[in-house]
Amino acid sequence: MARLDKAPRRVRQPAWTVLLGGATGLAAAAAVLLAVWLRPAPEGGGTLAPRGGEVEWARKVGVEIWAIEAPLRRIAPDSTFSPGTPLVATYSNVDSSPAWLLAFALDATNEVHWLYPAFLDPASDPVAVRLEPSVVQRTLPDSAVLEGLPLGPVRFVVLVAREPIRISDIERLAPAEREPDRLRARWPRARIDVVPARAEPDPGSSGRKAR
């Protein structure tokens, strides 16, 4: 034990590999599916009884938005970015069933600027992006540039549901009904995360344009 205490310790550092172009790959740890607590049983000395339960499905799905810059940068609360910056989403889904993703930005007037799914034709009505089960963080295959996004405060909204939702389900709402609290009331079983950010002027770069 004395020799072990004196031995040099290695600290394992996380690592990721960035591939720009077709997709961006990120490594992530697997999520814990089941929490179990042990407590003494009411009767019988020294025995233990388990308790706990399955984690709700919404906690098994995680989505993050990244700015494709050098280096790659996650859009965190109060981040700044240029409207011309390509953005890409990564996800993990440790549930056994697929989930469905809508991701968009709300500007100061609650106008919607779509990230996922791609909304390139106003006559179309794309369905949410299907997120297959995966314990590894995966990257969606295309990036997006928020076309027409004004400078100023922006809220990124990530809506993950158990059933397919279409773009029209958001587009037909009045601006006041697009507030995150209103969306949560409309889809109480969905997971809705909001990341406040700010669009600031900067030379942009290329990427798929989203309405």
List the defining traits of the structure above:
Phosphatidylethanolamine-binding Protein; disordered C terminus; 211 residues; 14 strands
Overview of the structural elements:
This protein is mainly beta. The chain has three helices and 14 strands. Strands 5, 7, 8, 9, 12 and 13 form a six-stranded mixed sheet that branches. A four-stranded antiparallel sheet has the order 4-3-6-10, with no helix packed on it. The protein starts with a helix and ends with a strand. 25% of the residues are buried. The model is unreliable at 7-41 and 204-211 (pLDDT under 50).
Relative helix content: under 10%
CATH topology: Phosphatidylethanolamine-binding Protein
Number of helices: 3
Low-confidence regions = 7-41, 204-211
Alpha-carbon distance between the two ends: 63 Å
The level-1 CATH class: Alpha Beta
Radius of gyration: 21 Å
Structural class: mainly beta
Order of helix and strand elements from N to C terminus: HEEEEEEEEEEEEHHEE
Mean pLDDT: 78
- Mind telling me which CATH architecture this is? Alpha-Beta Complex
Domains counted in the coordinates: how many? 1
Q: State the major sheet.
A: 6 strands, mixed
**Got a strand count?**
14
Strand content: 35-45%
Overall shape: globular
